[in-house]
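Project outcomes to date are best conveyed with an example. Our students and postdoctoral researchers have been running inverse folding experiments weekly, and each run begins with a structure described purely in tokens. The record below, which covers 365 residues, was selected by the lab manager from last quarter's runs and is presented without edits.
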């Protein structure tokens, strides 16, 4: 497989298996967020709408695209971010950008790398980016055929789908970005992209903080079980066996796992995506349940049934959100909803649920 296999239960430490029969996670002392911090995170204007932003990003993209992209770079480069307001006026910010990512970072895989935007503190007051600091920008991997842009749309909608199911998820904002190379060497181009909420801001909305890891491992039984089951079932819904995640904790000590990075899912079905060779599937479009079995993680059948009911209750809303994305090609929309139909047929049938759960992971696997 061309990309590091990173299931959610392995991404924050080496694994979520038992070590010496006990959980050895040691997180720093978490200072409870203040009411002011929570309210500020919940009220930032950038993610208050799903309207498509018209952005212009000016930077030395000629150098950025050709520099060593074998690993994440800490080097930030000056850039200017400009956007249009509904009244026709424009705003701009001096910012910093750097490359980020894993698979899509490498030049052999993508022409254009994913970016991280660093907004200067104190420069955003009263603007659309008020309250923002660092943001991920998911961009088109290649600049040729239109299907590369469709992949970005599909991954954006993966986040929107999870937003319908739970607030404990990363918010996203769609954008049409015009990239202007300040060196004059590369052509200007415009493509669909989307911004992802900063992890710290996402956690603050929940009255929580992202855990800074110092040592050890986290046993899956310690994760808030409803959220854990929901994430497991959601990943099955979109056909995802390879993703990343962050852990956040509330001041009461409740641990939540919040997933991101869905481009290797069957939902997106990107040409470059393939499942880990150790799995019993041949292509990402095949679904495989990668959650933990109920035994050993304090989960009951009633816990799972409650989550299935949530998915069923939200079905019409999810489909409506998908139908509202005009930029998505009609054939891809139809294909996606048929893919979801298969999922709903499974969770609506006890016999199919039983078959799905046969692939569940046991603690220690």
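After processing, the design step wrote out the following sequence:
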């Amino acid at each position: 497989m061309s990309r590091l296999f990173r299931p959610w239960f392995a991404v924050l430490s080496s694994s979520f298996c038992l070590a010496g029969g006990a959980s050895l996670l040691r997180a720093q002392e978490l200072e409870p967020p203040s009411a002011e911090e929570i309210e500020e995170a919940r009220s930032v204007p950038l993610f208050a709408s799903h309207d498509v932003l018209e952005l212009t990003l000016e930077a030395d993209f000629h150098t950025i695209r050709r520099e060593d992209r074998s690993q994440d770079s800490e080097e930030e480069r000056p850039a200017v971010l400009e956007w249009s307001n509904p009244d026709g006026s424009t705003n701009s910010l001096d910012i910093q950008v750097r490359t980020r990512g894993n698979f899509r970072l490498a030049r052999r895989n993508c022409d254009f790398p994913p970016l991280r935007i660093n907004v200067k503190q104190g420069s955003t007051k009263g603007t659309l980016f008020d309250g923002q600091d660092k943001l991920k920008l998911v961009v088109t991997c290649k600049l040729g055929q239109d299907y590369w842009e469709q992949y970005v749309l599909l991954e954006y909608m993966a986040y929107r789908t999870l937003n319908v199911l739970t607030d404990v998820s990363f918010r996203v904002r769609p954008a049409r970005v015009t990239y202007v190379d300040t060196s004059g060497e590369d052509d200007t181009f415009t493509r669909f992209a989307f911004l992802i909420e900063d992890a710290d801001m996402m956690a603050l909305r929940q009255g929580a903080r992202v855990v800074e890891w110092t040592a050890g491992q986290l046993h899956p039984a310690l994760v808030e079980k409803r959220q854990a089951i929901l994430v497991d079932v959601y990943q099955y819904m979109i056909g995802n066996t390879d993703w990343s995640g962050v852990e956040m904790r509330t001041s009461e000590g409740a641990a939540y796992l919040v997933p991101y990075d869905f481009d290797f899912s069957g939902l997106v079905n990107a040409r470059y995506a393939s499942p880990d060779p150790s799995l019993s599937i041949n292509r990402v479009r095949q679904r495989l349940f990668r959650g933990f079995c109920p035994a050993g993680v304090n989960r009951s059948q009633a816990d799972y049934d409650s989550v299935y009911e949530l998915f069923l209750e939200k079905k019409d809303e999810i489909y409506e959100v998908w139908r509202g994305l005009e930029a998505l090609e009609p054939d891809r929309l139809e294909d996606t909803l048929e893919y979801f139909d298969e999922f709903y047929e499974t969770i609506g049938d006890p016999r199919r649920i039983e078959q799905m759960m046969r692939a569940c992971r046991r603690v220690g696997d």
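The chain has two domains: 8-25+211-357, 49-200. The radius of gyration is 21 Å. The training component of this project remains on track.
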